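Render this sequence as a predicted structure.
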Amino acid sequence: MSFDVDVETRLGDFALAVRFTAAAGLTALFGPSGAGKTSVLNMIAGVLKPARGRIAVDGAVLFDSAQGINLAPNHRRVGYVFQDARLFPHMSVEHNLLYGYRLTAPEARYVQPDQVMALLGLEHLLARKPGALSGGEQQRVAIGRALLASPKLLLMDEPLASLDAARKEEILPYIERLRDEMRLPILYVTHAEGEANRLAGAMVRIAAGRVTA
């Protein structure tokens, strides 16, 4: 699996023009705050439309301005993990995890709940509500929920940014397991160089809306 991104847009006075290709494994989109990293993720996810460009995942075109292709977000098979977990507070961990799984056609599923629960160490949390979880536990559930929709690409937007150092150390090994065991392309946004160096097999550096390396 691989994905190709070639997009341009303007957000007020900010011009964004980014082009890169990445393969299975974890690619870090690295750069300072305000560089345009989250905007790139939003264009891939389909919540921000580029002015021009092309986005393809595993050969499937999600957006192509020249051909007039712009798939709706729910048809892109792109998982998105945000800085804050955004779990459904009234649902148990188990029901949060199964939300995307139940919306995914059986023939499109490539991962099962038991597999994801074991991968992320969630088996003992299933009956709890999100309010009874630590920040690190909430993020693991959010990652699991995204995975159980069987995405072709997983976007992670600074998923550790709101956690303290101890919670970051708790969740990093789970992200490494996800990277190593799922064979899924992951685009991981961060401005923490140590985090990028630890997790990423490839790195795209971005500054002021441009790829610099």
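Summary. The first helix runs from residue 37 to 45. The chain has one domain: 2-211.
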